[in-house]
Design a protein that fits this description.
single chain, four-stranded mixed sheet, about 100 residues, alpha+beta
Length: about 100
Amino acid sequence: MRCDLTLIFTPRQSLDLTIQVEPTPQLASQAREWFEQTWTALGCEPLRPSGKVLLLDKIMGVADALGYAVLASDQSRADEYARQTALALGKPRITVDLPGLSVGY
């Protein structure tokens, strides 16, 4: 499956990534675990005041922690992030909108 991922950091900073994945339930589970581990390793904090941290919050938090500069300049990290996002959500088109605090697909 081809997945087109758009990351919006600010109105002037966004990235468009394309990745090929073959989603399976096992790979989706591994991707969710990758987000859990990466969220913890990067010291991410909840973006919402409720304090609850769902998968979509982890997807946004990891993108925010890695930041535009890293993902724009480090293709391997950008590809890994895109791959894990595509596998976790299993959707062909995903938009991670950090200012809007939303993940759409």
